[in-house]
Amino acid sequence: MPAGSDFLQLRAAEAPAKGLTGWLADGLRGAIAAGRLAPGARLPPTRQLAAELGVSRGVVVQAYQRLVDEGLAGARTGSGTVVARHAAVTPRPPADRRRTLHELRLPLSTPDGIDLNLSPGVPDLSAFPRAAWLRAERVVLDRVTAADLGYGDPGGIPRLRAALAAWLARTRGVLAEADDILVCGGVAQGLALLAQVLTSRGEAAWAVEDPGSRGARDQMLHWRVRPEPVPVDDHGLRVEPLIGTGLRTVLLTPAHQFPTGVVLAPDRRRELLAWAAAGDRLVIEDDYDAEHRYDRAPVAALQGTAPESVAYLGSVSKSLAPGIRLGWLIAPRRLQADLLAAKHASDLGSSALPQLTLAELLANGDYERHLRTVRARQRVHRDALLAGLRAHLPQARVRGVAAGLHLLAELPAGVDDVAFADRIRENGVLVHPLTWHRLLPGPPGLVIGYAAHPPDRLAEAAARLGRAR
C-alpha cells in the first residue's frame, strides 16, 4: 500500500514561490535518509501527492524523476515508483538499552553468553494458561460495554476489584472491600505510588529487610526514598532494631522473605503490628509469591489482622506473567484518596481488557486451577535443582525451599559470592550473589531461581555451578 504525504513532514504553506520541484525532491531525499521511506517502499501516486501538497502533478512527476536519475528510486510497471533497495539510510547511534538493563540486573534481562538465566523472580512463562486466557477474553469481548472501554475509575474496574476482594479474603486472609483495592501496574507501580504519597508527607526513609530485595531498594531510591537496613534472621525481620531506627515505615516480605525464604515468626508478627499501631506507623507488605508453596500451609497476610496499619501489595507477575502488568494495592483508608490521585495522575487507570479478563478467570475458577497446575510443576523444578546442588555443591546450605520460585544456597564463610557468581556466569549460568541483596556485610550465598527451566536444564545448571568452585 503506498504511503501518504505525512512521511515528508512538509507543509504546503511553507513551499517556496519558485523551485517547487527542488523543494519536494529534497523532502523525498530526507525521508529516505531518515528511514521514513524504507527501501522497497512505494511512493504515493503522483496525483494523490500533488493534491495533498497543493502543487501541480508535474512538480511531483519531476521530483520523482530526479530520484530515479539519482538511483534513489525506480519505476515499476503496475507498482508506480518505489524506493531503491540500496537507498542509503542514515545510521542511528547504537542503543545503550541492553547495557542499561544489565546494569539494573532486571530478571528478564539475559546478558550475552548466558543460556541459563537462574535469576530469582523469573516465572515459568511457558506455563502461561493461553487457552484459559483466550476463553476468558472471548467471554469479556462478547459482553464488554462501551463504558467498560472508556476512561473509568482510575482505581480499577469494579468487577475485578470485587473478584479480588473475595479471592484475597479466601486465600490470603485479606480484609478489604472492593473500594479499598487499587488496581495498578504490578507491585512496582504500587511501590511507586506509596513512595510519592509518603514522601509528600515527610516519610523520606523506610526501613527494609537486610538482606532484602535489591530491586525494591533501587526503586525506592529512584523515588527518593532512602532505604535503612534492618537485619533478618531465621525468624524474619528483627523488630527491636526496627524500633531503634526511629522510622515510621517498613517494607517487608513476611510470608516468604526475599531472599532467605524464612517466614516471619508469630511473635515477630505481633511485635511488628504493635509497633505500627502504637505510633500511626505503616507496614508495607509485599506478598510477591504467596501462591507458590509446596511443603507448608499458607501463611495469612499481615493485612487481615491490622488493615489500618498495613499497605498490602500483590500481583499476577509470578502466577501468570509479569508482562500483563496487573497488581493491587490495599492501603489503610487514610492513604487511599492520595494514592488514587497519584494513580490518576500517573496513567488515568490500568488497561481495561486485562482487568476484565483476570476478573473472568477468578470468577470461573480457571485462575485457581492454573495455580494448582503450576505448583505441581514448580515442585518438580525445585526438586531437580535441589538434587543437583546436593550432588555438585555439597558445601552449600540450602534454605527457603518450602515455597516461592527461588532458593538460597548459603556458602562457607570466607567465600566471595560475587566472584563466585562471576565464575558461574563464565559457564553460561546467571545467578545472584547474596551480596547484591545486602546493604550491610553478611554471610555469602547465591540466590537461585528455578521456575523458568525444565528439570534437565536445572540439573545441568547445578553441574556448571559445581565446576565453577
UniProtKB/TrEMBL annotation:
The keyword Transcription applies. GO terms for molecular function: transaminase activity. Keywords: Aminotransferase, DNA-binding, Pyridoxal phosphate, Transcription, Transcription regulation, Transferase. Pfam families: Aminotran_1_2, GntR. Residues 18-86 form the HTH gntR-type domain. In the C-terminal section; belongs to the class-I pyridoxal-phosphate-dependent aminotransferase family. This is PLP-dependent aminotransferase family protein. It comes from Actinoplanes oblitus.
